[in-house]
């Protein structure tokens, strides 16, 4: 199997379990699931069985938050007989830090030895190949390189290798000399003198990974409640040991009739949800798993006012470059990690053939974030873009920032304090509440291993013979993908443009009556059938952004300017709602001052 850097997921082939597969029969069997029964095929039957709480109205576990951590925990618990509900304040899953990060699956060598990060990072990394074989979100095990320039940085790489070995990362190679490094990465800068290679690292689309976990969990009986914000937790006050989770459910739009009924929530920088409170209710559960990301410390303090956990929001800004830049980089490239400043700005190929530059690391006071005053000024944005462009070209001079198609930012839930670590454990004051908090980088990588730890802790707390010890007899681990692979002249020389993976023609004029051939998104080659498919799976979708994250309609160079209206019409038709009620992308959201700023950045 070839892991050539020129490969793009679902174009002439697919990534499965970290490896590139271009054999048609293998794609049909292992990606398109022909002849298989997956969880996607049976979710409607399971949904008709009603809420997993059953007649008692009491869940075994309520998970707060549907980012990478909450999604991984939900899927892990779906393997058991536990009755589980996920409460997410946003209008979709993967709405916080998960949707806006590098998507890098780290090897785990950079985590401080002996830390909670080190315990779970490498373990999580090694779980991704099998997860992708089951859930088909796409994982490219392209490997990573930490690059050094000069003797001092080479010594730091030697320290990093020793740390990696202590963390259990044994497949590390220190390569010395520019020529030797360029065998691995031909276009690195001439001042590079050494590199530490970590072949187990790779890339995913982080939001697609999270969605895959959530869909498979829902298919297997986990209940998801979107637009459901947790207001209060009341720990058990009786022998039954039931925690009351007070939830406010909201509906989109501007239908609030008074201030008390108005609803506003921001899950990430620049994105604000507005609507009206629909209902307030109490969800009863024996355990609560707090995976609330930026709001995890707030949730934890509601049951333990003396809780020492604090979250320091840290912004990470990115430049997303055109697919014509993908050719310059084969692996995830890090500058030599600084003992204080961390890993720095990296350059990495994305699963879908773009090049990503970032992130920055800008600490923002929690109060500033809560008040929505964390959007940089135009001058600050220009400085950020220039910093990112210069950092990328220091590693790979050929990278051209003028090809930027999008800028965005994520906010990491960094634990406050010097050398502060992740918090994974039960609350001291409320032993029914399990906190998974302060999970910053490499949290995405560690998420499946953290989920396994959460299940272990719940089993230990509940005692032998509990629902956590009972396997879910009907659990189906596999899921059908949303995106159908396409092909071009590389596979079919006679093709005049993009075609289906079996050579079937596609209609870019948008006139074909066949939705499987009618292209809606011209940039990414997304068909109407793919858009429709996103709307009829186990996690509800009612916005163009929700569709965008699932099938990539609007992810190309025009960023949805040519297709968002068409996608909105399809959503309205399928869900039988007025087009005006379909949620649209919020501009500028977390975008920096202007893509034009990046495009004007000078080449070094």
Structural features, described:
The protein is of the alpha+beta class and 604 residues long. 27% of the residues lie in helices and 23% in strands. The chain is built from 16 helices and 26 strands. Strands 3, 4, 10, 11, 12, 13, 14, 21 and 22 form a 9-stranded mixed sheet that branches. α3 packs parallel to α8. The two termini are 37 Å apart. 51% of the residues are buried.
Task: Please summarize what this structure is.
This protein has 604 residues and is α+β, with helices and mostly antiparallel strands. The protein is built from 16 helices and 26 strands.
Task: Work out the helicity level.
Answer: 25-40%
Instruction: Label the structural class.
Output: alpha+beta
Global shape: globular
Would you identify the regions where 5 or more consecutive residues have pLDDT less than 50?
A: 45-49
- Give the overall pLDDT as a whole number: 90
How are the elements arranged and paired?
Elements: E1 14-16, E2 19-21, H1 24-31, H2 39-47, E3 58-64, H3 68-77, E4 84-87, E5 104-105, H4 116-125, H5 128-135, E6 144-148, H6 151-166, E7 173-176, H7 178-184, E8 194-198, E9 202-203, H8 206-219, E10 223-225, E11 228-234, E12 243-252, E13 262-268, E14 271-290, H9 296-303, E15 311-321, E16 332-335, E17 346-349, E18 355-358, E19 362-363, H10 366-370, H11 378-395, E20 404-415, E21 423-426, E22 433-437, H12 443-462, E23 486-487, E24 499-500, E25 519-521, E26 526-527, H13 528-534, H14 544-551, H15 564-575, H16 595-599
Parallel strand pairs: 3-4, 3-14, 4-10, 6-16, 14-22
Antiparallel strand pairs: 1-2, 5-9, 6-8, 7-8, 11-12, 12-14, 13-14, 15-18, 15-19, 15-20, 17-18, 21-22, 23-24, 25-26
């Amino acid at each position: 199997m070839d892991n050539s850097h020129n490969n793009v997921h679902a174009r002439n082939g697919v990534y499965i379990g970290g490896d590139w597969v271009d054999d048609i029969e293998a794609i049909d069997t292992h990606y398109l699931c022909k002849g298989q029964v997956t969880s996607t095929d049976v979710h409607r039957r399971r949904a008709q069985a009603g809420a997993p709480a059953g007649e008692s109205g009491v869940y075994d576990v309520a998970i707060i938050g549907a980012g990478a951590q909450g999604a991984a925990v939900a899927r892990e618990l779906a393997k058991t007989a536990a009755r589980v509900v996920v409460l997410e304040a946003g209008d979709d899953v993967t709405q916080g830090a998960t949707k806006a990060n590098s998507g890098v699956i780290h090897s785990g060598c950079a985590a401080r030895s002996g830390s909670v990060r080190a315990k779970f990072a490498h373990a999580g990394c090694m779980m991704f190949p099998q997860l992708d074989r089951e859930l088909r979100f796409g994982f490219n095990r392209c490997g990573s390189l930490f690059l050094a320039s000069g003797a001092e940085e080479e010594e730091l790489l030697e320290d990093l290798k020793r740390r990696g070995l202590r963390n259990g990362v044994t497949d590390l190679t220190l390569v010395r000399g520019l020529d030797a490094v360029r065998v691995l990465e031909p276009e690195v800068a001439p001042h590079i003198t050494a590199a530490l290679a970590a072949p187990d690292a790779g890339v995913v689309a982080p939001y697609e990974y999270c969605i895959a976990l959530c869909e498979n969990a829902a298919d297997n009986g986990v209940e998801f409640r979107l637009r459901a914000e947790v207001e209060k937790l009341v720990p058990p006050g009786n022998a039954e040991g039931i925690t009351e989770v007070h939830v406010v459910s909201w509906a989109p739009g501007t239908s609030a009739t008074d201030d008390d009924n108005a609803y506003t929530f921001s899950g990430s920088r620049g994105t604000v949800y507005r609507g009206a409170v629909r209902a307030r209710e109490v969800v009863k559960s024996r355990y609560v798993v707090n995976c609330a990301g930026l709001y995890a410390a707030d949730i934890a303090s509601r049951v333990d006012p003396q809780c020492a956990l604090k979250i320091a929001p840290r912004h990470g800004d990115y430049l997303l470059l055109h697919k014509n830049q993908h050719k310059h980089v084969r692996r995830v490239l890090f500058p030599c990690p600084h003992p204080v400043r961390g890993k720095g700005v990296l350059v990495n190929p994305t699963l879908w053939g773009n090049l990503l530059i970032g992130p920055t690391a800008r600490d923002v006071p929690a109060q500033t974030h809560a008040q929505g005053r964390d959007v940089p000024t135009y001058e600050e944005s220009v400085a950020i873009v220039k910093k990112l462009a210069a950092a990328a070209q220091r590693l790979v001079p050929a990278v051209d920032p003028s090809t930027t198609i999008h800028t965005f930012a994520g906010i990491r839930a960094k634990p406050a304090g010097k050398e502060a670590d992740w918090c994974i454990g039960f609350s001291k004051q409320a032993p029914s509440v399990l906190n998974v908090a302060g999970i910053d980088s490499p949290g995405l990588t560690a998420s499946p291993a953290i989920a396994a730890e959460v299940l272990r802790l719940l089993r230990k707390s509940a005692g032998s013979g509990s629902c956590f010890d009972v396997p879910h007899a009907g659990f189906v681990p596999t899921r059908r993908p949303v995106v159908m692979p396409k092909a071009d002249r590389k596979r079919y020389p006679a093709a005049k443009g993009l075609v289906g993976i079996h050579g079937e023609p596609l209609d870019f004029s948008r006139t074909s009556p066949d939705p499987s051939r009618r292209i809606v998104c011209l940039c990414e080659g997304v068909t109407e059938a793919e858009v429709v498919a996103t709307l009829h799976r186990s996690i509800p979708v009612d916005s163009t952004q929700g569709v965008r994250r699932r099938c990539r309609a609007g992810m190309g160079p025009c960023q949805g300017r040519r297709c968002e209206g068409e996608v909105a019409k399809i959503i309205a038709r399928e869900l039988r709602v007025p087009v005006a009620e379909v949620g649209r992308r919020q501009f500028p959201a977390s975008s920096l001052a202007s893509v034009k700023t990046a495009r004007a950045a000078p080449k070094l």
